[in-house]
Amino acid sequence: MTPELKAGGLVLRALQPEDAPAVHRLINDWSVVRMLSRLPFPYPRDLAEQWIDSTRHDSAQGSAHHFAITRDGSLLGAIGLVLSDDRRSGSLGYWLAPSAWGQGLTTQAARRVIEWGLTVLRLEKITADAAQDNAASLAVLTKLGFAKTGTSSRRFVSRGQDCPIDLLELPRTTFLLEAQPPTEAPVPPAEAVPVAMEPPKPRTLLVVAAALLDAQGRILLAKRPEGKRLAGLWEFPGGKVERDETPEQALIREMREELGLDLTGSCLAPFTFVSENAGPFHLLMPLYVVRRWRGVPTPREGQTLEWVAATDLGRYPMPDPDLPLIPLLQELLG
Ligand SMILES: Nc1nc2c([nH]c(=O)n2[C@H]2C[C@H](O)[C@@H](COP(=O)(O)OP(=O)(O)OP(=O)(O)O)O2)c(=O)[nH]1
């Protein structure tokens, strides 16, 4: 299913039948239609209804995800990812009403959809194309890190002619490596910065996490909320170790802040650790196994919580560094 995503002040959500009048009004504009290859001009009202229906069907099948781009409840445009048959790549398409142009909104919406596609859907790359005279769209794609892979030509129904198009591609690694570091990542003290102008080394981020186990041996996973880095991915509850904390103190604090649990006096059994390149930083994450605590896990930071059997862990999209933990936990709990 197509989730709701947040991007700055924008809400990206599945299209609804009630959107048809607004979709029709906004697309039925020469400056929009002339850049969309398959649509006629004038754009008939029933095509808007048919298109919305088809997006809902695609979403149920998982073959494509189309989002209405909305701000304060008003529809401004749409953006979508059509997946390849093997579901390893997605083709990005979008349109925005002229009244919303020039505010960076397409870039904002596209960045969030791309991030979601590359992390939650685990796509390997995103492709896109644009008419060569669509300078605004090509600028957006370049800003997002897309690189031109070739050219082609396509029939534009509204223009009644074949037009040259640029083909572009954004590999998963490019996008994830260019992601901004989290704002609260520790900054090395000034005296530790070498004077020589060497390229900056990846910073190591120390994060503690817990595999909380219930009486049936299920593990508590938390889905990262919209607005955070890696939103929509499932993780082991935990967080960054502050400068003056031990990992165990940090874990006790995080469990209280995130889940309302009291772990003081509980056995915090070190299980294993992750040491992985996580894009903008290097992640060092000890994982503790915890079977006893006081309180009932309650999502206090907008997360979604689920108790998951070890055998089902693979069904929950997780950050890359967590993947090796899955077979280890399955072995522990098998
Ligand atoms: N808690 C947790 N974090 C993980 C896991 N896997 C993984 O890559 N991480 C990353 C995501 C974050 O970049 C970082 C955890 O930091 P955090 O949860 O305290 O902070 P955050 O980025 O959510 O953001 P913020 O609260 O500082 O805004 O470690 C995991 O299984 N559990």
TrEMBL record:
One of its GO terms (biological process) is DNA replication. GO terms for molecular function: 8-oxo-7,8-dihydrodeoxyguanosine triphosphate pyrophosphatase activity; 8-oxo-7,8-dihydroguanosine triphosphate pyrophosphatase activity; 8-oxo-dGDP phosphatase activity; 8-oxo-GDP phosphatase activity; acyltransferase activity, transferring groups other than amino-acyl groups; metal ion binding. Its cofactor is Mg(2+). InterPro entries: Acyl_CoA_acyltransferase, GNAT_dom, MutT-like, Nudix_hydrolase, NUDIX_hydrolase-like_dom_sf, NUDIX_hydrolase_CS, NUDIX_hydrolase_dom. It catalyses: 8-oxo-GTP + H2O = 8-oxo-GMP + diphosphate + H(+); 8-oxo-dGTP + H2O = 8-oxo-dGMP + diphosphate + H(+). Residues 10-173 form the N-acetyltransferase domain. Pfam families: Acetyltransf_3 (PF13302), NUDIX (PF00293). Residues 202-331 form the Nudix hydrolase domain. It is an enzyme of class 3 (hydrolase). The keyword Transmembrane helix does not apply. The keyword Hydrolase applies. Keywords: DNA damage, DNA repair, DNA replication, Hydrolase, Magnesium, Metal-binding, Mutator protein, Transferase. Its EC number is 3.6.1.55. Belongs to the Nudix hydrolase family. This is 8-oxo-dGTP diphosphatase.
